[in-house]
Fold this protein.
Amino acid sequence: MKAIRVDGFGGPEVLVPVELADPVPGAGEVVIAAEAVDTLYVETQIRGGWGPRFGMHPPFVPGGAAAGTVVAVGGGVAPDWLGRRVVAAAGSRGTYAELVRVPLERVVPVPDGLGLREAAALAHDGVTGASIAARAGITAGARVLILGAAGGMGTLLVQFAVAAGAEVIGAARGERKLGLVRELGAHRVVDYSEEGWTEGVGGPVDILLDGVGGDLGRAAFALVRDGGWVSAHGAPSGGFAEADPEDARRRGITLSGIKEVQLAPSQVQQLTAFALGEAAAGRLKPVIARTFPLADAALAHRAIEAREVPGKALLIP
């Protein structure tokens, strides 16, 4: 099979197309012929040197989710899984490949009427977004500020918050991305590449969903009202925003971070099924901005790092 391998940490050029032996499913596993492979910004950071933080050391095949059709099953797996359209859900490994071996506990059926590309686009961001939105307890009338609102998960968080009846402020970079956030229903948009961007938020917010981190996240934290709620789950700026715990305690602000969205396989299955079901019913729409052939994974990573991709970029084997 064709796959992408990282033999040493570095720039996008270390994503090298290779030929590998076809995987054989073990007990409790299936093999999926991938038709769409999810990509995440954090995968560019893993490739660039963060791998050991995630238990990944060269050589390795990147990727953590894909959608396709089951073509082989291992011992203990019912044969009726063969031919089913499924997602290799978040937490899978080695999905930058034509064939993906995955434990059955990571497999979620794709509902009729939902495309495999849309399913792949929801495999990570739909799960994490649904988890964050539920933890935040978004209610009608709440003011919700979303940083990175035009990203793969940001676009879903905007939709979750709008559906809950919140007043949504979407922060992103550039008019193209701000236009997308408006189309998704945000009531106000702010360009955080501009000086004094926090003034455009229009006052305190009840909930901050920070998918960016760094200085932008710290600036946004100052806008959260006393008694508010903060999720600092993104780090494309180079690091997660670290709020002062003592300041948060004094102000009665609840802090949630990346640790709170590290989910057990059973939770991932449940939330994946939920996100796919919402999309199949037309209530949730992943934004797929670009697709790249699997062999062009390096180009996909360059585009993601250059912030050229609003919404999702997918690899197509």
Notes: The two ends are 10 Å apart (CA to CA).
